[in-house]
Amino acid sequence: MQLQQLQVSNEAEYRELLHDITCRTSAFLARAGVGDGARPSAGQKAGPVHATQEEVVALLTPPTPAAEKALFAAADRVRRAAVGDAVHLRAIIEFSNHCERSCWYCGLRRFNRKLPRYRMTVDEVVEAARAAIALGFRTVVLQSGEDSWYDERTICTIIRRIKAISLPSSSGTVAITLSLGERPRAEYAAFREAGADRYLLKHETADPELYRRLHPGMSFTNRKECLHWLRELGYQVGSGNIVGLPGQTVSTLAADIGFLSELDVEMAGIGPLIVHPETPLGKLVERSNGKEAGLPADAVTMTLRTVAAARLLLPLAHLPATSALGTADPRGRQRALQAGANVVMPDLTPTRYRRHYEIYPNKICIFEDPSSCFNCLSRMITGLGRFVATDPGHSPKWQLPVGRR
Ligand code: SF4
Fold it and tell me: Which residues have CB under 6 Å of ligand 1?
């Protein structure tokens, strides 16, 4: 995409741009047959919502606090029209903190010798899922570092056993999201065949050079290939990016949103960078007091703007209010839920393991037991005038006729 100069230097121009983009979003929703009075166009595909990279850059840089407020309010209105007031809770079970990779910011990197490592047994994972289902969760997210100790057969066994758990007072099965990193296509196919519904593989950054620098031995090209395999195999695909990476610019973030749109993701996890101290980036930050590491100043604000822009351009996507946002700002999740987000992903890993899944330090809700966690989140959600969804929360795109997805 060519980045040209777009003149949005004052609030009036910003509001004009915002109005123009939200009109395109409304037209998209009408084509999809979503929202009050919408009439789907016969045989026409709904999306995506088109915006140039220069428009997205402008959207991400509101010139005044009032303009920023208008962005969040527009995203909140679109969220209500597109996916309603329900907030979907996804129970994350982090079953292994072993990782064969060495990403520059992540505490699970294999060279972090200070982290006590754990692997949950198959029975432990299934029991954690059973407990989450009993509490009312209708999606479990099985997450780990890149850990090939769990081979295809083991993961398929876990999926089948969780899928066989009957749901209290309803038919159907719990939805399973996998978040296991990069795997061979044949394994993704086997997991899907075993019953996995969704796969979350964040692209982290759509800048190939930045990606290469922060993820030794990995490439953006491979990442994209994995995501395309997941799409071909019929998963509901989740991806997403980190906000606040060193050297990242607003154009990079606009490219991230462009990439998510191009992939037409069903879910996009957008969260701020929180550097773990036992990593190369952590050491760099420590030595330079944050200055030479080139970290942008306010990752929380920029994350909220990115979530809001993603809601306008991917209106039917599920957008989580991430735990990283809640860690970086005590009201971060509430703020995200009021700026376009509609998902919260609490950590239901057994408490004896949970604190060791230390991608970043000081993560919220490390010691809460699962039932108080569910109640606490329910209060937070109802306090915002929203409600907790009681269904598995499959992508709304999945409910559209095939031709309009
Ligand atoms: S970001 Fe993911 S792949 Fe990279 S070290 Fe952490 S857990 Fe491993």
Answer: 99, 101, 103, 106, 108-109, 145-146, 181, 359
